[in-house]
Write a structure and sequence with these properties.
The complex is a heterodimer of chains A (666) and B (248). Chain A is of the alpha+beta class and 666 residues long. Chain A is built from 18 helices and 19 strands. Chain A is globular and about 80 Å long. The relative contact order of chain A is 0.16. Chain B has helices at residues 33-46, 118-127, 148-158, 165-169, 176-187, 190-193, 196-209, 220-224, 232-247, and strands at residues 3-9, 18-24, 68-70, 73-74, 96-101, 109-111, 114-115. Classes of the chains: A alpha+beta (666), B alpha+beta (248).
């Protein structure tokens, strides 16, 4: 099958408007006869479901959580970008488009990104109308802050809980439609396969996680909005249940999987404390607005700190290495995530790390606290305020801005970040890769769509902060409601899809066999044992920096681990009850296949770009070295039976509105 | 650390359920409470026994999935956190820890420590929304200035994570704090005022129908709430309800 991205003709700024006016529509009476399944209820899934139901389609939503409100979008902290230019600091649709393409290291599709920038402002209007309580200034207007990789303030936020507030907004829009009977929510349900009839996506097999029953659900189109696959690393900032299963199952049924190796390692997470660790906690990028990142400049100081003989507050200003400010003076602490993460790893590898494991750097609010304190003192006419008073005033300002993050840090680490710098280290956070989709967000399976983090479309090789929320809501509120109608216009005479068909029989049988096989295995080790080992291989050999030798080792090791898993995993309990170990086993089985494709993709891409850093391809001062001549394409993999047999299809990327340059934040 | 865990085990909704004692060793103060349960479950599965079922997901205190009653308190002894943010350093070597599900008639047990909180969803479905379409065809976000103080109070109410600790803490198993948080968020914003009358009537009616108890202003909910949702919200709901009933 050849890849057709279906990008509309015409100037970039007109493509989307023109496309919307030309695509086919479904009249309201006919929408009532069309069913759509949405898998996942985060920002992308929730907004898709609500919007399609409003239009009149019959929607069924599926989520593994007990309520749509618990999808992991809830945990996004910092904010959402929009080219509103409320600050009058030079922002525009073009600038957001440009920043996103550059931030993605020239590996994303121009037309998609421009559309994203175009609709971004409307997202904020929409959310405010829904009652999302964004942060405001004293004049009553919306407040903004800055995120990495940009030089304007375009990020809207609700303290450090922006994702929560946006998701609750989408959830409220869903609730309105559930109340009207237009959405049927299937909570505590997990999609385990896609059903294709006559070449079109026509339904899913889902397991009711409470009773264990397998259910058949049919529809005229299926939307996968199941998030990213960061949990292939076991330790990540994703939720424990976040998984690749829905995306992987459609891949195995014919949807190409694009750029699996593009992973975002977020620079500011709380460092790993021990082997028992089950997940990592992010400290929002917004903290880099005010926090300064440093390590001790002298190796002996770093060692003394690791051994507990010295405190960070005792290190003099001139003995601190603010390495981001030093290496990237024009963006300083607000360089993009991939750049900040690699720089932190470089310092730690050179022996300057600051916690017991040597894998941590400082994020220091000392100077911000004093700066804000002085501003406050002036405002309160305290002309001879003591340092202590200034610090107190400054701490109050910092608390108002980041209070919940500081509290979260203190509960986990048991240290007071107002008094001593935070310790942070990079961790897996987001996956730019995902299911390949065309301009309409349709996968290579007709009638099967992918939205939000589950697709690959907008972020290239690196995502800028506060852009995930923007993309999820753009896909669901403003893109799919148009593009899905274009496809469904051909289905107005189809009528309800029967679940009593050989295709449904076959799909259900296959799922049943996998479940039976896992339960009958009687191996010796729990699922987590294999998941942790997979995570170690991924982190050590497919993590922040990669090389040919280790990627080849990773492929062999993952393959061997997968075989061992199927031989030796132990899943207690039965299929006909709530069985959390069985749920985990099915997810890890898919991660064990995806992980290998991930490594294969990383191995084939002989260049460094964004989050994909190959040690063989770097400049003299350690920056990523792209190879535009040979790799300016989307790598879309076709499933052929085993990850090693996956076939590569290339979608060339053309930049007609942006000059491709070496990405520099110096 | 060496600990004794007394955990509620219940096979399914029909089973009567019972407390089972598990000794556990090698627990580190830096572990979270749920990681301690992971260690327990790892051991149980390795021995061929069924692991303890509990709800959890984000493990950073925001999704509202985790829901344990620990030594009689929802989310355990610490304040302003969920169970996943509780760390074992809050306990001492040799402690006995009693772990139960959230108890309420409206939250039936599904299995072990997992309960059904879908009643909360149904309360939200009854009126926890503003009736605007998501078409984006609305006014500019800055067209209506909102006083910062109102916006901040609306945010504080909206920070509710729907975990159900308020219900579990309440001697009447009342859902007033939960319901009032949503009613307050919208009541404080101009966008929400339009439907304020119907919203409060519908949400309170649904809350009563679900079998939650009445509020007697004890205030245990506010103390146990991991997000610090204030009792002021309940007062606001009562004002809204009274004025809606007078209008209605």
């Amino acid at each position: 099958m050849s890849l057709d991205s279906k990008i509309p003709q015409g100037p970039i700024a007109e493509k989307w408007t023109k496309h919307k006016t030309l695509i086919d529509l479904v009249n309201p009476a006919n929408k009532r006869n069309i069913d759509v399944i949405v898998v996942g209820t985060g920002l992308a899934g929730g907004s898709t479901a609500a919007s399609l139901a409003e239009l009149g389609y019959n929607v069924k939503t599926f989520c593994y959580q007990d309520s749509p409100r618990r999808a992991h979008s809830i945990a996004a902290q910092g904010g959402i970008n929009a080219a509103k230019n409320y600050q009058g600091d030079g922002d525009s649709t073009y600038r957001l488009f440009y920043d996103t393409i550059k931030g993605g290291d020239y590996r994303s599709r121009e037309a998609n990104v421009h559309r994203l920038a175009e609709v971004s402002g409307n997202i904020i209007d929409q959310c405010v109308a829904q009652g999302v309580p964004f942060a405001r200034e004293y004049g009553g207007l919306l407040d903004n802050r800055s995120f990495g990789g940009v030089q304007v303030s375009r990020t809207f936020y609700a303290k450090g809980q922006t994702g929560q507030q946006l998701l609750l907004g989408a959830y409220s829009a869903m609730n309105r439609q559930i109340n009207r009977g237009k959405i049927k929510p299937y909570n505590r349900h997990e999609m385990l396969d896609l059903v294709i009839v006559d070449g079109k996506a026509r339904g899913i097999i889902a397991r009711n996680l409470v009773t264990g029953e397998l259910e058949r659900h049919s529809a005229h189109a299926v939307v996968i909005a199941s998030g990213g696959y960061g949990n292939v690393f076991f330790l990540s900032t994703n939720a424990m249940g976040s998984n690749v299963t829905a995306a992987w199952k459609i891949h195995k049924k014919g949807a190409y999987f694009a750029n699996p190796c593009y992973t975002q390692i977020h620079p500011t997470c709380i460092p790993v404390s021990g082997d028992h660790q089950s997940k990592l906690t992010l400290m929002s990028e917004s903290l880099r607005n005010d926090g300064r990142i440093w390590v001790p400049a002298k190796l002996e100081d770093a060692q003394a700190i690791r051994e507990g003989r010295l405190k960070p507050t005792q290190i003099k200003e001139e003995d601190r290495d603010y390495f981001l400010e030093r290496r990237y003076p024009s963006f300083g602490n607000l360089v993009p995530r991939d750049v900040a993460s690699r720089a932190a790893k470089e310092r730690c590898d050179a022996g300057h790390g600051v916690n017991k494991t040597g894998e941590a750097v400082y994020l220091d609010f000392g100077s911000a606290i004093m700066r804000y304190g002085k501003e406050k003192a002036i405002m309160q006419h305290l002309h001879d305020a003591s340092d202590e008073k200034i610090r107190e005033l400054g701490e109050a300002v910092v608390e108002a801005k980041y209070g919940n993050l500081f509290q979260m840090y203190e509960k986990i680490v048991d240290q007071n970040p107002y008094k001593t710098p935070m310790m942070i280290y990079p961790a897996v956070h987001y996956t730019m890769g995902g299911v390949w989709v065309d301009y309409n967000l349709m996968t290579t399976i007709p009638g099967c769509y992918a939205a939000g983090e589950a697709n690959f479309s907008d972020h290239g090789a690196n995502r800028l902060g506060a852009s995930a929320l923007m993309q999820g809501l753009a896909d669901g509120y403003f893109v799919l409601p148009y593009t899905i109608g274009d496809y469904l216009a051909d289905d107005i005479r189809t009528g309800a899809i029967s679940t009593d068909s050989p295709e449904f029989d076959a799909a259900e049988k296959q799922v049943q066999e996998t479940i039976d096989k896992l339960l009958a295995n009687k191996g010796s080790k729990p699922v987590d044992h294999f998941h942790k080992r997979l995570g170690k291989i991924m982190w050590n050999k497919c993590g922040m920096s990669r090389n040919e030798k280790e990627l080849k080792e990773a492929i062999a090791e993952i393959k061997a681990l997968r075989e061992e898993f199927w031989r030796d995993v132990r899943v207690p309990g039965s299929a006909h009850e709530l069985n959390q170990e069985l749920e985990k086993a099915m997810r890890v089985a898919d991660f064990l296949e995806l992980g290998e494709l991930f490594a294969k993709d990383a191995l084939h891409r002989n260049e460094s770009c964004g989050g994909h850093f190959r040690e063989e391809y770097q400049t003299q001062d350690g920056e990523a070295l792209r190879d535009d001549e040979n790799f300016m394409y989307v790598a879309a993999w076709e499933y052929k039976g085993a990850p090693e047999d996956a076939v590569l299809h290339k979608e060339p990327l053309a930049y007609e509105n942006i000059q491709v340059k070496t990405r520099s934040y110096k | 650390m060496k600990l004794t865990l007394k955990i509620w085990r219940q096979k399914n909704a029909q089973d009567k359920g019972r407390m089972v004692t598990y000794p556990i060793d090698g627990i580190d103060g830096d572990m979270s409470f749920l990681e301690m349960l992971d260690v327990l479950n790892d051991g149980l599965v390795s021995r061929g026994e069924e692991p303890v079922v509990f709800d959890h997901d984000c493990r950073e205190g925001i999704c509202g999935s985790c829901s344990l009653q620990i030594n009689g308190e929802p989310h355990g002894p610490d304040r302003l956190i969920t169970t996943c943010q509780l760390h074992m350093r809050k306990f001492s070597d040799g402690d006995t820890i009693v772990i139960e599900p959230f108890r309420a008639k409206a939250f039936p047990v599904i299995k072990d420590l997992m309960v059904d909180r879908s009643a909360f969803d149904r309360i939200q479905q009854a009126g926890g929304f503003i009736s605007v379409n998501t078409s984006g065809n609305t006014i500019d976000a800055n067209a209506i200035p909102i006083p910062k103080n109102d916006a901040d109070h609306a945010f504080n109410a909206a920070a509710c994570i729907g975990c159900g600790a308020c219900v579990a803490a309440c001697k009447n198993a009342s859902a007033m704090l939960f319901t009032s948080a949503k009613v307050s968020q919208y009541a404080l914003l101009p966008q929400g005022r339009v439907e304020a009358t119907q919203r409060v009537l519908n949400m309170v009616a649904q809350m009563d129908e679900e079998g939650f108890g009445n509020c007697t202003n004890t205030g245990a909910c506010e103390i146990e709430c991991p997000k610090g949702i204030s009792l002021e919200n309940i007062a606001r709901l009562n004002r809204e309800l009274l004025s809606a009933q007078l209008k209605g």
